[in-house]
Amino acid sequence: MWKTVQRAGLATVHLFVAAAVCFGMYIFVTVLLITAVGTVAVVGCWMLPETVLLIRRITGAKRNLTALWTGREIPEAYTPITGTLRERLRIAIKDPSTFTDFRWMLAYYLYGALFFLALPLWPLGLVVDGVWAGLLRRTPLVLPLVVRLADLEAHWSSVLLMPSPQARLTARVQELKLTRADAIAAHEAELRRIERDLHDGAQANLVALSMRIGLAKRAYDRDPVGARKLLDDAQAQAEQALTELRHVVRGIHPPILTDRGLVGAVRALAASSGLAVTVEDGGLAEGTRAPAAVEAAAYFVVAESLTNVAKYSGAERAEVEMARTRRGLTVRVRDEGRGGADESQGSGLLGMRRRVAALDGTFEVTSPVGGPTVIDVELPCVW
To answer: Is 205 exposed, middle or buried (0-12, 13-18, 19+ CB in 10 A)?
Structure first.
């Protein structure tokens, strides 16, 4: 009985909020009329994309309200309205989701009136139902009806606000364009890093090595002791050049991944990070390995994350969790530091996001001021 009352109370709140949204939509008719007149008169055509953006906010709020009741999110599939006025007008008119939103608004104008007619009856019905169930000890009648009405309203909204296949395809194409652009940017940044490391490190050492060998050859006959000293310096220079080259190679694809696999490589990172790091491998050590590109991306995410923890967080401990899922590989790095991580501050988060996006993965950062900082990554792959 109490659960029925509680559920009916939540349904009543949902329906009252839905009725409030519907009332606001009736007021919004004025905005629609002004926009229509301005667009027909051409001088006010700039209002059309702005109105469409406002409608997107309204339908977004309605999607969230419906999701709170049903427990199922309603996806959005909008094409960003950007560019010149002509481009903004074209996108606002041709975006398939614009039709979806207007369809929902029209339907809401029609069946929303039912909520206003029913509102005065709800309090009376609830009182009568309470007397019926409490004093006469009968099964409630009105309360399940209120819940059913809320379910019906949420179902209508879910169906009407669900993006069309064309809209989802358009949004997916736009997402892939952005992902491709991020992948190209990440690739170019990686090439610049490799070029810089080769130029400033290995190449400089090899030039110095060549000069020392040349000087040693000239001094060999007249000053054997000095020539030997130059050859010793040349040997040290060669070893330094090899070290620089190994550093560059590790930046391209760490050899430790090939030798030990992802779990072993991450444990090695944890051991050399200077932090107390716990690593949960989720059984990856015993299972089939992920593709090389996926392992490399996961490795660099962990490496960059632990570097950020050591440099910026002030934490002494960190946790790394990896797991195999049906969709691919998940990685989570958590620390209890000061938080406040910001991608715009050059902390390597943007580079990690681009590297993950290049594999069509997801990258999320949660870092409130005061901590904790949690980085969640999902990399799709076939096992």
So the answer is: buried
